[in-house]
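Appendix C reproduces, verbatim, an entry submitted by the partner laboratory led by Prof. M.T., so that reviewers can inspect both the input and the predicted structure.
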Amino acid sequence: MEQKIDQDVIDLYNEYCHGYIGRREFFSRAAALAVAGGSGLVMAQALLPRYAQAQTISFTDARMKASYVTYSSPGGNSGSMRGYLVQPSGAGPFPAVLVVHENRGLNPYIEDVARRLAVEGFLALAPDGLAPLGGYPGNDDDGRELQAKLDPAKLRTDLLNSARFLKTHALSTKKLGATGFCYGGGIVNYLAATLGDELQAGVPYYGVAGDPAGVANIKAPLACHLAEHDERINATYPAYESALQATGANYQIYRYPGTQHGFHNDSTPRYNEAAAKLSWERTLAHFRKYLA
C-alpha cells in the first residue's frame, strides 16, 4: 500500500475501472509506459484491490449484527433485490443510511463501509445491484461486466426501491441518509433529486453530479467529496453547483488536495489515509446532524 504509483498508471487504472478499457489493455498499456521508480506493469498490478487487507470492522464485531435480506423491487431489473443489512447492537430504532456500491456490485469494501456505519449507530443497507444476475460474483472484473449488462434505468429503480425499503424498515427511525462511491456517488445525487423530502441527508463520494434540471427537488443537505485528480467527475460539478446555489440548497462540496478518484477505498494504493479519515469524519458528522 506504500508503493508510489505513477500518475499515468493511475489514469489508465481509472479508465479500466470505469469500463473504458479492458483488463488486458490496461496491463498492456501500463507495461509499455516509461515510468520513474519502477515497472508500469508492477504498478498496475499493485492497484488491484486487496479486500482482505483493508477490512476495518470484523464480520463478528459485537457492536453490530449483519445479514443478507431480500425485498421487493417493482420496476427494477427482476422485481426483487438483495442487500447487506447491518444493524447496531441494541433494540433500535436507528437512523438509516443507504450505502451504494461502485460500478461492480456489492464488493467487500462496500460491505465494510456498511459495518463502519453500524458501529457508529446507523442502520445500514448496502444493496447489491447485481442481485438480478446472481449477485456480486466474487471479483471486480466480472462484477463490472455484469453491471454493464443491466438496464441502467431499472438499476436506478432497484436502488431507489432499496432506499425506500430501508426508510420504512421496522428498525429505522424513518430518517434516511445515503452515501455512495463512484457510480454510487452519482446515485446519491440522483436519489436526492428523486426522493425529495423522503431523503434527509446525502453524501456522494466522487460521483457524477446530478442533472441541474432536477436540483429544485433536492431537500436533503448534501456533503459532496471530490478528489483533486479526477477531471472527468469534477467537470460535471460547475453546472450542478450553480443550480444548487440558485435554488438555495443546503450543500457543501469538499475538495481534497493531492487525492485520486477512489481515495476513500483502502483496498488500493489510490487510498489517501488523511483525506479518507477527514472525509469520513465529515460524513459521520453530517449524518449525525441531519438524521438525529
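The longest strand covers residues 172-181. Additional entries are available on request from the coordinating office.
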